[in-house]
Give the backbone structure.
Amino acid sequence: MEYLPDVDVPSEIPIDLPAFKSQQRRWAKGSIQTAIKLLPRVFSSQVPLFTKLQAFIHLTHYLIHPLMLIIALTSLPLMTFESSLWAIFPFAPACVFLCLATAGPSALYITAQQALHKNWRRRILWIPALMVIGTGLAVSNTRAVLEACIGTANHFVRTPKHNIIGMTNRPQTSYPLMIFDSVSILEALMAIYCVFGLIWSLQIGQYMISPFLFLYAAGFALMVFFSTKEAALLRWHPQTLFTSDDLQSHVFASERAYKEALGLREIAPLKPSL
């Protein structure tokens, strides 16, 4: 097996944030389920320690979202006790780890864009927006991680494929599965909490944590905005949304094209599964 970093593989990404959110939740839950199943075998094997560490990081990388949520929730108490000398010590390392966690994914995306595209400098201007979206997924993906840990079963929700190239013939939304639910309420509460923390950090002069609180607040607020938008579309303009039959036809067409590309026989219509 050989990894070729200069090979560009085209694919269709979710056309809107609700579809992306659902996809990421599925990936997060699946990754943690795989980690729970395979990591005991990896740790008990005879492979080198560094290989075990790589396997652990690769299979549990979605744990970053619960950790991000914990950091957001504990930022305000840490700042509240900033006048105590003992509280300065856990606060400063937290900022260092936040910087490292922010720089790591950004470096990954910059390297990928540099390897694939000549206009990579223009493309990396989108990294701040990517950071906001990634931060906003913390609540939704934390729920997925917890569901994987306690063994909660859900329907397998596929990401719709529409064969869209550019912005032409683009539907208003992919599907009405991501509406304003309990996760959106928690995201709204987290956005308010982080805004309050941001204001408090500026008032007491804790400027190291301010950019991260701004990032959290913007990310959660973005999720709430699009969840509210989808709920409004579902309430006032239901004809603009895809029905379950539409979704089934898109999923079936995508699976059929995949089978045909592999030279396999025609497949039967799909059925929902847990």
About this structure: Residues 243-274 form one domain. Residues 51 and 205 are 43 Å apart (CA to CA).
